């Protein structure tokens, strides 16, 4: 009899324990807001791991979604969603971005690692009023950038780089008040660069698109530290806008059709790399002080006048394929022989002389190219293949330019 009572008590205890665990399971499932739970299910159905990826292995909807890889919660709401394994070189995801993303009403951060996501960016993203970080780069997004993204008034970072986006950059993007980083490079965007009003904008990267038109003198804020507009078809003068951007530490306007003069003040900015090559810039260059920028590339423009000795402190200087005249300043020779200058490309100009001993030894760490000028170079140094084989410019061209 006692044995039967003991068995009964054990059975009852087991029943109570099983009931308790079942209740716990339901409690876990009930932690997350039901709308967020259903949204995550829809997002998951639209995506899969690429071969070699197991990112979604933890996405078991019989357990707590707040423990899923890439899902971060605050109480009962999803506040961050980072889709895919963030480790470098890891396979990404394949599929589409489901509009249900817009149901995650507390989301502040949304990112997708590089992969093969196709289709368009969901319009529903505009519903995420608290979103501060949006990054879906190196995928295959197509169609246009939704103008409704301008409704994300708390957005700080927008990175849609390395996709196949087309159409114009919506003007509404430029009106987001706290925007700090805009990275839309390597797409197929066209039209003009809209004005950016945010006084917090520090990085604007629009290179490798098909943008056209000119930049308004106040279209970019002076808060910019990094500006890259290279490999587009932008045109017009930029002297007024550049004069305002005195916090720049990186500037690349190369491979466009910008024209007019280059303001001397730009050479005093805290820039480490200045890329203005392959444009239509004209006029002389007059830096007010010794230039401390490490690399300055002004090649393939229409710059003229004498070369300022203020450039002799630049480590890598590209002034080739312009219309410079006169003597190469002696300070260049001094610094070149001291190995302080690593690259000095002056080929394809109208220079008439350089005061250097023909027996001088150019340091092996330095490169000098003088060919195709209005002089016979006193030293023979290797030049890049693009410089051609002609050592001097035809006399008729030199006389015409002097005239």
Which features does this protein show?
15% helix; 9-stranded parallel β-sheet; alpha/beta; 14-stranded mixed β-sheet; 403 residues
**Beginning-to-end CA distance, first to last residue:** 125 Å
Radius of gyration: 30 Å
Share of β-strand residues: 15-25%
Strand tally: 26
Q: List the total number of helices.
A: 5
Shape: elongated
Broad structural category: alpha/beta
Mean pLDDT: 92
User: What are the segments in which pLDDT stays under 50 over at least 5 consecutive residues?
Assistant: 10-30
Largest β sheet strand count, sense and barrel closure = 14 strands, mixed
User: Percentage of helical residues?
Assistant: 10-25%
Q: Classify the oligomer.
A: single chain
- Within the largest sheet, what's the order of strands? 2-3-5-7-8-10-12-14-16-18-20-22-24-26
Task: Describe this structure as you would to a colleague.
- With 403 residues, the protein is of the alpha/beta class.
- Helices cover 15% and strands 25% of the residues.
- It is built from five helices and 26 strands.
- It has a 14-stranded mixed sheet with strand order 2-3-5-7-8-10-12-14-16-18-20-22-24-26, with no helix packed on it. It has a nine-stranded parallel sheet with strand order 9-11-13-15-17-19-21-23-25.
- The chain is elongated.
């Amino acid at each position: 009899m006692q044995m039967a009572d003991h068995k009964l008590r054990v059975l009852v205890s087991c029943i109570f324990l099983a009931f308790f665990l079942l209740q716990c399971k339901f409690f876990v499932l009930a932690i997350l807001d039901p709308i967020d739970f259903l949204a995550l299910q829809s997002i998951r159905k639209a995506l899969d791991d690429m071969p070699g990826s197991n990112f979604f292995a933890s996405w078991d909807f019989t357990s707590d979604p707040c423990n899923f890889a890439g899902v971060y919660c605050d109480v009962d709401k999803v506040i961050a969603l980072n889709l895919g394994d963030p480790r470098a070189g890891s396979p990404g995801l394949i599929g589409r971005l489901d509009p249900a993303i817009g149901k995650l009403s507390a989301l502040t951060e949304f990112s997708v690692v590089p992969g093969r996501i196709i289709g368009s960016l969901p319009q529903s993203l505009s519903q995420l009023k608290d979103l501060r970080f949006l990054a879906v780069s190196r995928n295959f997004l197509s169609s246009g950038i939704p103008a409704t993204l301008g409704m994300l008034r708390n957005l700080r970072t927008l990175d849609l780089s390395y996709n196949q986006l087309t159409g114009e950059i919506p003007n509404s993007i430029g009106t987001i008040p706290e925007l700090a980083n805009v990275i839309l490079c390597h797409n197929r965007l066209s039209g003009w660069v809209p004005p950016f009003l945010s006084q917090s904008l520090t990085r604007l990267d629009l290179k490798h698109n098909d943008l056209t038109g000119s930049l308004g003198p106040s279209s970019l804020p002076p808060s910019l530290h990094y500006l890259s507009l290279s490999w587009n078809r932008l045109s017009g003068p930029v002297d007024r806008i550049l004069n305002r951007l005195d916090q720049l530490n990186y500037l690349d306007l190369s491979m466009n059709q910008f024209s007019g003069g280059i303001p001397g003040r730009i050479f005093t900015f805290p820039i480490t790399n200045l890329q203005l090559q392959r444009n239509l810039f004209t006029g002389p260059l007059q830096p007010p002080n010794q230039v401390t920028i490490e690399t300055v590339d002004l090649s393939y423009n229409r710059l003229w006048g004498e070369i300022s000795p203020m450039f002799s402190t630049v480590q890598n200087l590209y002034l080739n394929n312009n219309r410079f005249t006169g003597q190469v300043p002696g300070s260049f020779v001094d610094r070149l022989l001291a190995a302080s200058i690593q690259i000095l490309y002056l080929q394809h100009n109208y220079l008439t002389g350089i005061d250097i001993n023909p027996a001088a030894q150019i340091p092996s760490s330095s490169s000098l190219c003088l060919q195709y000028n209005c002089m016979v170079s006193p030293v023979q140094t290797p030049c890049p293949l693009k410089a051609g084989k002609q050592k001097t410019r035809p006399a008729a061209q030199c006389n015409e330019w002097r005239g």
